[in-house]
């Protein structure tokens, strides 16, 4: 049965941050002066994984992504023990990609060496900006110089697959300042760059008290100039907000966009799993775990386990679910994948595509479902057309 199912990844959530950023809507919590409960969280994560093992269906893990929060607050010893425990339960692909998110202000070279020795082979550094005014406005706890130093220390520790997270459209940011951030990032020669616009998400401090953001015209100028600068530097755009050198795309994120499966463990983690039920019917289920760290740790001794909720994706919801992921990729996906993942015939899809093509939101490529450059900019409009009955 494993051969019929999509590739499998693992997402691990660490819910603690030194300080909550005003734009962040992720599940992150300040631990205050308390030491992080590494031993208890390690035991809980492995117990959480035990509850999901049946849904792995014997598949090896192709990628692991450790996100947060700030995963680099936890020690290299924690991750070495965690990976040992995971290997006792699941096999790893020989070419597994293991990514750790790290903040420049919470790391130093000795930790990077420890992370590399533990088996982490890809780092994602949350730089966001190199400019003091923007870093202060974003509530970041590092400086631009600390970001540069962290990247140098990561290289010295042996990391040859590095992502830099960079934001644009920041409070009072000019197009010239946004290009300076890109140029600084490019000078550090990353294999991958995630470049995305600041958005004001509900339940954040910025949403309640919006900062002064650039005008719409300036945002367009930043986006166009930044895209050209990155492409000219040899980082090709492969997803709406992701650029990479050849062969250095995030395999974990590609599995998301290609509608692969992933287990999710840790406080607030989400997973998406495919399986064939007892009647031979294909099912896709989303499940999510208890959010609050203290409540999550208490679930380790609770017969209910860690799952806070689960939901089967109804057949009529599959087309939009698939399109929301696949159309983020600049290369698109084969049309054959539509039927494989949604159970709907291509004829039904093609009837929906005509309007999107007439509006210039889809490329005219009969073998692939692929958004045009305009479609990537107006993805919500494209998805609305794709979901029309």
Tell me what you see in this structure.
The strands form three sheets. The protein has a nine-stranded mixed β-sheet with strand order 7-8-6-5-4-3-2-1-9, sandwiched between helices. It has two domains: 254 residues, TIM Barrel, CATH 3.20.20; 69 residues, Winged helix-like DNA-binding domain superfamily/Winged helix DNA-binding domain (Arc Repressor Mutant, subunit A), CATH 1.10.10.10. The longest helix has 19 residues. 39% of the residues lie in helices and 21% in strands. It contains 15 helices and 14 strands. Strand 7 and strand 8 form a beta hairpin. It starts with 7 loop residues before the first strand and ends with a helix. By secondary structure, the chain is an alpha/beta fold.
Task: Explain the layout of strands and helices.
Blueprint: E1 8-14, H1 38-56, E2 61-68, H2 76-87, E3 92-102, H3 109-118, E4 122-128, H4 132-138, H5 144-156, E5 162-168, H6 175-187, E6 192-197, H7 205-208, H8 216-232, E7 236-239, E8 242-244, H9 251-257, E9 261-265, E10 270-276, E11 282-289, H10 293-298, E12 307-312, H11 318-326, E13 333-334, H12 335-342, H13 346-358, E14 368-369, H14 373-377, H15 379-386
Parallel strand pairs: 1-2, 1-9, 2-3, 3-4, 4-5, 5-6
Antiparallel strand pairs: 6-8, 7-8, 10-11, 11-12, 13-14
Pfam family, one: HemN_C
Family: Belongs to the anaerobic coproporphyrinogen-III oxidase family. HemW subfamily.
Protein name: Heme chaperone HemW
* Fourth CATH level, the homologous superfamily of the largest domain: Aldolase class I
Strand content: 15-25%
Q: Evaluate the radius of gyration.
A: 21 Å
Return the domain count.
2
Query: How would a textbook summarize the main sheet?
Result: 9 strands, mixed
Count the DSSP helices.
15
Q: Compute the separation of the termini in Å.
A: 33 Å
Which H/E pattern describes the elements?
EHEHEHEHHEHEHHEEHEEEHEHEHHEHH
Which structural class fits the helix and strand makeup?
alpha/beta
- Which outline best applies? globular
Helix content: 25-40%
Name of the CATH class of the largest domain: Alpha Beta
Number of strands: 14
GO molecular function: 4 iron, 4 sulfur cluster binding; coproporphyrinogen oxidase activity; metal ion binding
Cofactor: [4Fe-4S] cluster
Protein name: Heme chaperone HemW
Function: Probably acts as a heme chaperone, transferring heme to an unknown acceptor. Binds one molecule of heme per monomer, possibly covalently. Binds 1 [4Fe-4S] cluster. The cluster is coordinated with 3 cysteines and an exchangeable S-adenosyl-L-methionine.
């Amino acid at each position: 049965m494993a051969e019929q199912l999509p590739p499998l990844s693992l997402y691990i959530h660490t819910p603690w941050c030194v300080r909550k950023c005003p734009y962040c809507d992720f599940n992150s919590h300040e631990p205050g002066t308390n030491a992080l409960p590494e031993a208890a969280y390690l035991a809980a994560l492995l117990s959480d994984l035990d509850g999901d093992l049946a849904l792995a269906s014997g598949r090896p893990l192709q990628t692991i992504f450790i996100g947060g929060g700030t995963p680099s607050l936890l020690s290299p010893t924690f991750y070495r023990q965690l990976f040992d425990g995971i290997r006792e339960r699941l096999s790893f692909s020989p070419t597994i990609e293991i990514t750790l998110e790290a903040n420049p202000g919470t790391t130093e070279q000795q930790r990077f060496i420890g992370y590399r020795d533990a088996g982490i082979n890809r780092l994602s550094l949350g730089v966001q900006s190199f400019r003091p005014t923007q870093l202060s406005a974003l509530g970041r706890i590092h400086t631009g110089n600390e970001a540069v130093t962290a990247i140098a220390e990561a290289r010295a520790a042996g990391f040859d697959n590095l992502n830099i997270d960079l934001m644009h459209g920041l409070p009072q940011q000019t197009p010239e300042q946004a290009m300076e951030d890109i140029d600084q990032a490019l000078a550090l020669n990353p294999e991958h760059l995630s470049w995305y616009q600041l958005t004001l998400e509900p339940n954040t401090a910025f949403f309640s008290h919006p900062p002064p953001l650039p005008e719409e015209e300036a945002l367009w100028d930043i986006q166009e100039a930044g895209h050209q600068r990155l492409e000219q530097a040899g980082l090709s755009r492969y997803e709406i907000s992701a650029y990479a050198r050849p062969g250095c795309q995030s395999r974990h994120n590609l599995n998301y966009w290609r509608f692969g499966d992933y287990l999710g463990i840790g406080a607030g983690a989400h997973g998406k799993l495919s399986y064939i039920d007892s009647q031979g019917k294909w099912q896709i289920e989303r499940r999510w775990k208890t959010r609050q760290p203290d409540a999550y740790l208490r679930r380790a001794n609770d017969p209910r386990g860690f799952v806070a909720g689960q939901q089967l994706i109804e057949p009529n919801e599959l087309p939009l679910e698939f399109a929301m992921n696949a159309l983020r990729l600049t290369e698109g996906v084969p049309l054959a994948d539509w039927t494989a993942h949604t159970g709907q015939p291509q004829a039904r899809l093609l009837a929906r595509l005509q309007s999107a093509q007439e509006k210039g939101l889809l490329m005219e490529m009969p073998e692939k479902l692929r958004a045009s450059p305009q479609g990537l900019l107006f993805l919500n409009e494209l998805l609305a057309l794709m979901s029309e009955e």
